[in-house]
Amino acid sequence: MEPVITILHAEDDSLLRHSTTQYLNTLGFRTLEAENGMDAWQIFQQERPDLVLTDLRMPVMDGFELLTKVINESPDTPVIIISGVGTMTDVIEALHLGAWDYLTKPIEEMSILVHAIDKALERSKMRRDSSNYQQLLEQTVHERTQKLEDELQERKKIERLVIRAKQEWERTMDAMPDLIALLDINQRMIRVNKPMAAALGLTPAETVGRKCYDYIHTQKCPPEHCPHLQMMTDGQPHTIEIHEEHLGGTYEVIVVPRYDFDDTTLIGSIHIARDITARKEAEEEQKKLQIQLLHAQKLESVGRLASGIAHEINTPSQYVGTNIDFLDEAFHDISKLMDHLQTLLHGEEDGSLSPQQFQDARQALDDADWEYLETEIPKAIGQSRDGIKRVTSIVRAMKEFSHPGNKDKVAANLNTIIQTTITIATNEWKYVAEIKTDLDPDLPSVLCLVDEMGQVILNMLVNAAHAIGDKLGENPEGQKGVITLTTRQDEQWAELRISDTGAGIPEEIRQRVFDPFFTTKQVGKGTGQGLAIAHDVITGKHKGTITIESEVGVGTTFIIRLPLDS
C-alpha cells in the first residue's frame, strides 16, 4: 500500500483554505492547514509534509519568508505558490527563491491545482531517484576502481614472477580470471588456461589441437570479422565483443600476434577473453538513466519557459483586445451615422425631408469623425492580424517543441528546429541579447532525433543568454549582447555555430564544461547537466562532434557538426 501524501496548505482566508483542504482530502491526500506563515513553518518542522501550498500575502510571516525557510531546510520539498494579488515581479521573485509552480487564485478549475500537485510530486520523486542512483553509481565506480587497482597490483606481481621463473608461467595463466588461449596460424589451440578450459567444458589437455571456432563459436568455419584472421593479415592486435550463451555472457576478446623466439616470425596469436557482462548491463542502465534525465530536463524546460510563453502571448493579445474595443466604438458611431442616412433616404422617397434632418445627419458625420476612422480602422485591423499571427507562431513553436519525439532518427530540417527553439525561448534571451541568424536555405535534411536536437539547441541558447547576462551584470543602461546562429554544409557534415558575446570560457576549464554536474553558475541557477546532455546527444547518439572556440572577455562559439550520411 502506497503511503499517503501529506500536503501543508498555508492560507489566511479560512473559507478558501477549508474548501481547498476538503477537496484535496476527497482525493486521498492528507492536508494540514495553517492560517499564517509562522504556523505553517512550525507545522512543517513537525510533520515534514511532502508538498507545500502557500499564499504570498499572509500575516505574521508572508509566503516569501515561508518559501525561503522551506527551501533552505528541505530543497527537495515542492512549494507551489497560490496567490491572487501577486504581480509578475512577485511571480519572478517566488520562482527565483525556489518555488516549483505558481497558480493564480481563485482557481476556477480545481483540476489545474491537482495537475500542478501531481507534476510537482512526480518531479520531486524523479530528483530523489536521480540522487540515489548517482550515489549508487559513485559507490560502484569507487569499488570497481579499487578492484581494478587491486588487479593491476596483482598483475604486476605476476609479471615479476614470470620474469623470475619461467616455470611459473602456466601457474600465472591459470590464476587469472580471464579466458586465455594460444593459437597457431591455423587457429588450432596450442595451450589454454584453466578458466578457458572450464568455459569450454574440457580439460586443458583436451583442447590441444582443436579449432578455436569449433568450441568458442560452435561453428564449422571462422566467424565474419574473425580477429585472428585480421591479425594474420596486418600483424596488428584486434579487439571485438562477442556474446556467447554457452560461455555465460558477453566477452571482450583481445587478439595479439604471437612471435617465435626471433621476435620476427609470426607463429600464431594469443586470445584473451574478459567477461564484461556486468559492465554491459551497467552501461544499459546508464543509457536508461540518460533517457530519463533528458526527459526530466525537457519537462523542466517546458515548465521554465511557460511563464515566458504566457508573457509573449499576452502582449499581442492585449493590443488585439484594445483594437477590438476601438472597432466596437467606431462601429457604434458609424451605426448612428447610417441611421441618419437611412432617415434621409426614406424622407427623399416620401418627400418629407426637413432642414433638421440634414442638420442631424451632418452632426452625426462630425461625431463619427470619418476622416480619422478611415485612417485608423485599417491600421487596427492590420495590427490585430499581426497579433494573431504572432500568437499562432508562438503556439505552433511550443507545440512542435513539446511534442514527444520519435525514438528513431528521422530526416529533419535543422533550420526549422533552430527557428522553433528560438521562438519558444524568446523570454530567456530577449532581455539580454539580440538574436541573429544566418541559416543556409539549401542545407540538406539531417537524420536526427528531432526532440533531443531541440533540447540541445535550447540548452545552448540558455547558456549563451546566461553568459551575456553575467557579463552585463546589473546593466542599468539596458545594453544587450548578441547571439548568432549559423548553419552551413561542409562536405558530408551539417555545421551549426552558436556564438555569444558573453564573458568567454577560461582555458583551464574548457575541457571540463561537458562533464556531468560541472557548472560555473551560481547555486540554483545551473545543474551542470545542459552541456553534458548536449555532448552525449551530439557525439553519442548522432556520431557528430561539438567543439568550443572562446576568448575571455569577448565571447564563445560552440561548433556542432552532424553527419549527413548517417
Produce a short descriptive summary:
This protein is of the alpha/beta class and 566 residues long. The chain has helices at 14-26, 37-47, 63-73, 88-97, 110-164, 169-175, 194-200, 204-207, 212-216, 227-234, 277-350, 355-368, 370-402, 414-424, 426-429, 450-472, 530-541, and strands spanning 6-10, 30-34, 51-54, 79-83, 101-104, 179-184, 189-192, 238-244, 249-259, 266-275, 410-412, 433-439, 446-448, 481-490, 493-500, 545-551, 555-563.
CATH topology of the largest domain: Heat Shock Protein 90
- The parts where pLDDT drops under 50 for at least 5 residues are 523-528
* Helix segment tally: 17
**What radius of gyration results from the CA coordinates?**
36 Å
Number of separate domains? 4
What is the terminal-to-terminal distance? Answer: 48 Å
> Structural class, please?
alpha/beta
CATH class category name of the largest domain: Alpha Beta
Share of helix among residues? 40-55%
CATH superfamily of the largest domain: Histidine kinase-like ATPase, C-terminal domain
Q: What is the number of E strands?
A: 17
CATH architecture of the largest domain: 2-Layer Sandwich
The major sheet is characterized as: 5 strands, parallel
SS strand fraction: 15-25%
- If you average the pLDDT, what whole number results? 79
Q: Order of strands side by side in the largest beta sheet? A: 2-1-3-4-5
Overall morphology: elongated
